[in-house]
Write a structure and sequence with these properties.
This is MBL fold metallo-hydrolase. It comes from Halocatena pleomorpha. The protein is an alpha/beta fold. The chain has one domain: Ribonuclease Z/Hydroxyacylglutathione hydrolase-like (Metallo-beta-lactamase, Chain A, 4-Layer Sandwich). Helix content is 16%, strand content 27%. It contains four helices and 13 strands. A hairpin with a 2-residue loop joins strand 1 and strand 2. The longest helix is centred in the C-terminal third of the chain and has 13 residues.
Length: 235
C-alpha cells in the first residue's frame, strides 16, 4: 500500500451531512488524506441570482469526479489551507474554479509555494459560522482548526486523526504520532458533536468523548503505538 496515491482513481465519499461532505481521493493509500467541502449559505458578496451560497473546499486532494461532487452543494467560493503541509492540490482546484486560496493570517509562509491568488482568512470562514482557531504556530508546524459552536462541528487537519498510523491499539481516534507527548489539550474543552479530520473518516458518534479519550491517553498509549508502527514496518 503506497503512502500517497498518484494515479487516476475514483474518490471515496466520507462524512456527508446537510452542510458538507468529505472525500478521500486515493482510498488505497496509507495516509488516507481526507478533504472536505463546507457549505456557505450566504455568499460574501451577496451577488447570486438564486440566493444560494456555495462551498469552501478545505485542504483538498484532487480527483477525477471531484467537480461533480462539489456541484451538488453549489459553486466553489474558495479553497482553504489549514495546515502549512496541506497545500496538496489547493492551487490547481482554485485556478480551475477561478477562486483564491485562503489561509490563516499568520500562515503567510506558504504563499510563495501556491500558484494561485492567496488571501488571508478572517476570524470566521465566510458565512459558514466556522471560527478559525489557531492550533499551532511553530516553524515546522502551523495549523488552524475550524469550529462551529452552534452545532458542535470541528475540523482538525492534523493533530487528530482516525487513520491507522495515528491510532494505538484499541483507539478509534488518535493524536498525531509526533504530538503524543504534547497532545492538543485545548481541543478537549470544546463541545463537539461532529469531528472531521485530515487523515481518515470523521467521528460522528460520541465525538467529544473520543477527543477527550484520545488526549487523555496520548502519552500513556504512545509506547504501544510505537510498537505497533515498528511491527508494521518490519512485517
Amino acid at each position: 500500500m503506497p503512502m500517497k496515491g498518484s494515479d487516476s482513481t475514483e474518490l471515496r465519499e466520507i462524512d456527508r451531512w446537510e452542510d458538507g461532505v468529505g472525500w478521500i481521493a486515493y482510498p488505497d493509500e496509507q495516509m488516507q488524506r481526507a478533504s472536505h467541502a463546507l457549505v456557505d449559505r450566504e455568499r460574501d458578496d451577496g451577488d447570486t441570482e438564486t440566493g444560494q451560497g456555495g462551498v469552501w473546499v478545505v485542504d483538498p486532494v484532487d480527483a477525477d469526479d471531484l467537480d461533480e461532487l462539489l456541484g451538488e452543494f453549489g459553486e466553489v467560493l474558495g479553497v482553504v489551507v489549514l495546515l502549512d503541509r496541506h497545500k496538496r492540490d489547493a492551487a490547481a482546484i482554485a485556478r480551475r474554479h477561478d477562486v483564491a486560496v485562503h489561509r490563516p493570517t499568520w500562515m503567510n509562509s506558504i504563499d510563495e509555494a501556491i500558484d494561485a491568488p492567496v488571501r488571508a482568512l478572517g476570524t470566521t470562514l465566510g458565512g459558514t459560522e466556522y471560527r478559525v482557531r489557531k492550533r499551532l504556530d511553530l516553524p515546522i508546524w502551523k495549523e488552524a482548526v475550524l469550529y462551529r459552536p452552534n452545532d458542535g462541528s470541528l475540523l482538525v487537519p492534523e493533530s487528530l486523526g482516525t487513520v491507522d498510523y495515528f491510532c494505538a491499539p484499541g483507539e478509534r481516534l488518535g493524536v498525531h504520532p509526533m504530538l503524543r507527548l504534547t497532545p492538543p489539550n485545548g481541543l478537549g474543552g470544546l463541545a463537539v458533536e461532529r469531528l472531521l479530520v485530515g487523515h481518515g473518516s470523521g467521528v460522528t458518534e460520541d465525538a467529544q468523548q473520543a477527543i477527550r479519550d484520545a488526549i487523555r491517553g496520548s502519552r500513556s498509549r504512545a509506547p504501544s503505538l510505537c510498537v505497533k508502527l515498528l511491527r508494521e514496518r518490519l512485517s
